[in-house]
Amino acid sequence: MTEEFVLDLDEGVPPMPRPAEPSRSLEQLEGRWPDPPEDSTSLVRAIHALRRRPIGDLRPDELARLITQDVGLPRLLPLAVRVLRDTAPRQPAGGWYDDDLLYAVVTRKPQVWEQLPGLAEELRAVIESLVGLSRYVRDEADAFLSSLPEDHDDATDR
User: If residue 5 lies in a helix (H) or strand (E), which one and from where to where?
Assistant: First the structure.
C-alpha cells in the first residue's frame, strides 16, 4: 500500500508532505472555525458540519461540496484524486463514476495545481482514461489539462 501525503499550500513556503490522517477531521487538523451565524445558508451549515467529520469517512459528494468551496484542499484533493483513480477503470464498462467530484477537482485554480504537480499528473492520467463524459465536465477537464505544463511522460493523443 502506498503512503498518502497532503501538502501545505502556504504562500512562499515550499510544500512539505505530511501523512494524511483519515481518522481525523479537518477541524482537528486545521483548527476550529467559529460557529456559523444563525441565519447562515444550508451550504454554510453543511460545510461546517462536514469539517467535523473524519476525512476518511467523507463520501464523494461530500468531498465535492468541500472542494468546490476551496475548503481543506491540501488534505482533500489527494483523497479525491484517489477516489477518481480507483473508480476510473470501471467507468468505460458503465460503472459508477462521480462527475460532480471530477468537476469539483478539475475546476480548482491553476495555482493550486502548480503547488501539487505530482497530484496534477496523477489526475491527468485519470482524465485521459475516461470516456463518455458529459460535455460540461469534458470542457472543464480539457481546460484543466491545457493548464498543465506540457513536459509530462505521456506523449499519446487523447
Answer: strand 5-7
pTM metric for this prediction = 0.79
In 3D space, the residue among 86, 136, 144 whose CA is nearest the CA of residue 114 turns out to be 144
Alpha-carbon distance 61 to 98, whole Å? 8
Give the Å distances, CA to CA, from 137 to 73, 74, 75, 108, 147. Answer: 20, 23, 23, 13, 15
What's the grid cell of residue 132? 463518455
Residue 93: band (very low, low, confident or very high) from pLDDT cuts 50, 70, 90: low
Q: Is the separation of the CB atoms in 16 and 8 below 8 Å?
A: yes
Does the pLDDT at position 154 exceed 60? no
Residues 11 and 37: their CA atoms lie apart, in Å, by 29
Question: Where do we find the cell 488534505?
Answer: 75
How far apart CA 117 and CA 158 sit, in angstroms, is 20
